[in-house]
Amino acid sequence: MFQGRSLLKEIDFTQAELAYLIDFAIHLKALKKQHIPHQYLAGKNIALLFEKTSTRTRAAFTVAANDLGAHPEFLGPNDVQFGKKESTADTAKVLGAMFDGIQFRGFKQTDVEILAAESGVPVWNGLTDTWHPTQMLADFMTIKEIFGDYTGKNLVYVGDGRNNMANSLLVTAATLGANITILAPADLQPAPEIQAIAAEKAAQSGSHITITADTAAVNGADIIYTDVWVSMGEEDQYAERIEKLMPYQVNAALFAKTENPDCIFMHCLPAFHDLETTTMQALHAKSGLTELEVTDEIFNSPNSVVFQEAENRLHSIKAVMAATLGHLFIPKV
Length: 333
Ligand code: CP
Ligand code: NVA
Known about the structure:
- By secondary structure, this protein is an alpha/beta fold.
- It has 12 helices and 9 strands.
- The strands form 2 sheets. A 5-stranded parallel sheet has the order 7-6-5-8-9, with helices on one face. Strands 2-1-3-4 form a 4-stranded parallel sheet, sandwiched between helices.
- The longest helix has 20 residues.
- The N and C termini lie close together (8 Å).
- The protein binds phosphoric acid mono(formamide)ester and norvaline.
């Protein structure tokens, strides 16, 4: 039963429920490609509350809402009273009285939990400092499209092993039965409480978990995944992170260590792979670096599926919104 539920973190849903949402997303992608209408949310209003910037998540929620026949309304950090003049709980009560569903992207996981508890409508987490659950649906959808299944696949996440993406990939892979390696320096590895959640899920699914600082662990990988070294809100930490994470850059030498020519490259994006951003231009002026977490060679290689992954944000977010707000007949999963 999905109706009326929120997606605040991956463990809100069972293995079977996550698998259903991924398959539903694949179905909705096929409907869209064939121009078959799917206006399951006609007449609904959706609030898109953003504390942090976004391209994919904002675009995906907006287009998904429109495709479903709903009206999305963007409420950005400079538009609303949230945080500065009004508490999360008061904001939740106001938005819940007017909107049928709320997307939240921000800093604190507690904020998205309060929004869900106080608004009375489904709330979808579009990224917090701790989790990025809608990204997970797109990522495992992409893996399923490419390999036919994610069960038993070897996913190696390389880089900042204690950010939202590492947390989410670790717990979601463990839930879905994919093998997951977090490859990161010792002081950037997942927090013990996140590792404990993943271990419990892996015991049920048969997933193998490896947490290591040794780059030899990429051997046998089906998927190499990385993310930015400095997440939103941590912008004062570039120098320290670059020093720690440069040995973990996803480049041709690291990719060769997989010894798997069919290994794919994934990244939630945005990525620092060239000098086409002002952030990289400023870093280049100071350090001479031209790329950070992934080289341009790997980012643009035939093994890279990053733009298929980005498109799938739309279809997977649509699946979550339709399943939780669409009064659909969904067989018990
Ligand atoms: N991957 C992702 O969440 O992208 P945005 O920050 O652009 O939404
Ligand atoms: N870890 C990144 C993910 C962006 C989609 C961040 O939080 O900035």
